[in-house]
Amino acid sequence: MPPGRRMGPPAKPKNVKATFGRILKYLVGQNKLLLVLVLVLVLASSAAQVVGASLLKPVIDNYIEPLIGNPTSDKMAGFASMLVLMGCIYVMGALSTYVYQRIMLSLSTKALLNIRLDLFNKMESLPLKYFDTHTHGEIMSRYTNDTDTIRELLSNSIVSTISSLITVISVFVMMLTYSWHLTLVVIGMLIIMMFITKKVGGNSAKFFIKQQKDLGAVNGYIEEMIEGQKVVKVFCHEDKAKEEFAALNGALCHSATNAHTFANILGPIMNNLSHALYAITAMVGCVLTIAGTLSLGAVVSFLQFTKQFSMPVSQMSQQINAILTALAGAERIFAVIDEEPEVDDGYVTLVKVKSNGNEYVETTDKSGIWAWKHPHSADGTVSYVPVEGKVEFDNVVFSYDGEKTVLNGITLWANAGQKIAFVGLTGAGKTTITNLINRFYDVPDGKIRYDGININKIKKDDLRRSMSMVLQDTHLFTGSVMDNIRYGRLDATDEECIAAARLANADSFIRHLPEGYNTMLVADGTNLSQGQRQLIAIARAAVADPPVLILDEATSSIDTRTEALVEKGMDSLMEGRTVFVIAHRLSTVRNSDAIMVLEKGEIIERGNHAELIAQKGKYYQLYTGMFELS
Description:
The chain has helices at residues 16-28, 32-54, 56-67, 73-125, 128-132, 136-178, 180-227, 229-234, 238-290, 296-337, 430-437, 460-465, 481-486, 494-503, 507-511, 530-544, 560-574, 609-615, 618-623; strands at 349-356, 359-362, 369-375, 382-386, 391-399, 405-414, 419-424, 445-450, 453-454, 467-470, 479-480, 520-521, 548-552, 578-582, 594-599, 602-607. The protein has 19 helices and 16 strands.
């Protein structure tokens, strides 16, 4: 069997610059003009704040001071017009902020759409080995937690940081223009704020990365417990499960507490420092006004600049946490997207052909026969080999992890139309043989030939299209019964699906369901019995109408009476096909053309039922109950 699964994402981002660049590519895409508009609106929003604050000086110096105790009509008119101008500027700034935030929300949603598409498309191209070594919860966390952190980055953090940076620069220039004395006070406080941000933010980043890792572990454990609740209850494992979850949850609590402690104290610290800066600036400004160096309006405007300067600095410091969390999540997503896809160097394809005298020609007619289209690079010719279902293993050696050998020197053959059975104790390598026929895994040593063609030369999709497989663990998808049967061949008609159900003896119970073939199945078909789910899986294989059929404990979940009915249908299904059967019930393999007895990854006996019984070897011992299969 495949090696045990491991848990846990990368500990920390490896390349922040590259990761951030890849995120921006999803955001930019075909949206360059919209992003230019966003930048213009951000500038307008920041400019509105700066210009509005700068107008306080002329309003106070030119209108309010002269009007104190001496209200004149000409000054009042000018004062009113200045107030209207300030109001219009601030309204323009508010509208600019609203519009660019709406645009960024739309663009970030589209970017996440593309990220999820790339992630899912890559997941569908990954080899089974990847899923053997990663938990379901770990993979799911890429679609949920990690994409949510990127959403915050794209929709808010990036624009907020740019807006804050523009505001800080603009305000700093205006402060220098108004008073270099007060600007020095602001710079001194800014140095203190930056030092605190670096210290607190650095610790916060470390724990946010740890939090993401612990969150993936918790999600993975919850996913496994949900899937295995029956097993948990059967073996009274609830207390142990609670204990294990408490440990994982405790680790998450610890990392999350530290991460958010540093993140949450940063905001209040920066706010208090900004209040202190405001107070110090006010005191120094009053001294300068009394000394006649600054006007009252200039001091008031400068105080407003001080607020506009310290607030963006605080915002940028708080955005550090969101940015670092998003980068950690993005790195985990890109790690999946960058995984090596399932290698397929095959060039032999499966096509429909018809006979045209002494040669075959391709056809789109459904009545044609299946054939392997084999191009020959040496002379540029193409040959067609009719699909018969002949399979050969030639000294195949295989290991899942490169260390423990699962199959050792397997040599076997199955002629077209033969029924080959594999028996042996658990772990003998029976299922591994069928996994190799499908090229779920590639063999490092030895060869497997299909109709005389090395399966490495056959494109994987075409190879698998020529086979159907009924697994021991059935999996039904959310949808109708008809949809689940048609999953075996998407272009199958309703009549063909019903005929396949009849062949598997599933038609009778399906018609007794509340809505017959239109009955909806949910949660892996939990509204059906295990035997009924198995029958639908067999019907799904039957509708594909393949030349090769693989049955991995296909009747293991069916009672004896149902099994007898299914076997009658299976006999019709297997007629004229090459069939590989794995069975624990030896009574189901007695009529096989050849029975392979496996032990520790090697074939120790081969023959039909009568021959193996006569040999009185391992098969005889298994069949007579001297040993039991498990």
